[in-house]
Amino acid sequence: MEIKAALTGNPNCGKTTLFNALTGSKQRVGNWPGVTVEKKEGTYKNDPSILIQDLPGIYSLSPYSLEEVVARSYLVQEHPDVILDVVDTSNLERNLYLTTQLLELDIPVVVGLNMMDIVEDKIDLKKLARWLNAPVVEVSALKKQGLESLMKQVKNESAKKEQKPFLFSRSIEDAIGSIQRLLPETKQTRWYALKVLENDSRILEELSLSKTDQQKITKLREAIENEFDDDIESILTAQRYDFIEKLIQDCVKRKRTKHAMSV
Ligand code: GDP
Ligand code: K
Ligand code: MG
């Protein structure tokens, strides 16, 4: 059986290096339909049943750039079997921001902690995996280290049917639940509900909700904005970073990084 694995990560996390190391010469390069964003896919050289789809480098799943729209449309519409989330471990906090969003898609996630050849921080992998509800594997795409264990996890996770998400505070979770029940049956997912709560214009257009439902949703959103005295996007962003901060405190013993990455 064929496994579809989507390769995601921030720009410069080492995605291309990893993609090349995993696929060797077995690559197909083109463009995403209608846009000039490069599309690359290939099969894992040690197991051709694993199809690796390289997605554009992105910082979040917001609709602010073409890359973000391409990546999230692929993930939501194609629903790959597993996401291989490449993380630049020398920049853990920022990279995990995308990870918290990927966990919301209900697609199993495997986290590849890349750049481990230059990172001296000690990371408790078991704890980190528990925080993220996803397997975490240390790799160096550059030195081709850890790639086999990484792909073993990718294969394992691809068989799973669900992914536990990162959770927001209680009132936000309640609102997500209420919105989910208002959505059309085929789109009653946590991800769609969260995007609706965030007032994501593309998603609202796609869903064309009734006036009554729109009003109900506005009320839910306003209640949260009043409670936290901020706009919804800032509230959700702050909660993601709170989570990441706590996770890092619990899982990472800081040392220095051997040398700064060239830019
Ligand atoms: P992308 O933008 O995510 O596709 O990142 P690239 O694959 O182009 O890598 C960005 C930079 O990071 C390049 O200079 C790579 O050589 C370097 N790089 C990628 N993986 C590793 C790694 O595991 N260790 C180190 N030290 N550098 C890496
Ligand atoms: K980065
Ligand atoms: Mg690249």
TrEMBL record:
Domain of life per record: Bacteria
Protein residues bound to Mg(2+): N20, A21, T23, G24
UniProt binding sites for GTP: 9-16, 34-38, 54-57, 114-117
Subcellular location field: Cell inner membrane; Cell membrane
Coiled coil: none
FeoB-type G domain segment(s): 2-160
Family: Belongs to the TRAFAC class TrmE-Era-EngA-EngB-Septin-like GTPase superfamily. FeoB GTPase (TC 9.A.8) family.
Function recorded in the entry: Probable transporter of a GTP-driven Fe(2+) uptake system.
Protein name (Swiss-Prot/TrEMBL): Ferrous iron transport protein B
Organism whose genome encodes this protein: Dubosiella newyorkensis
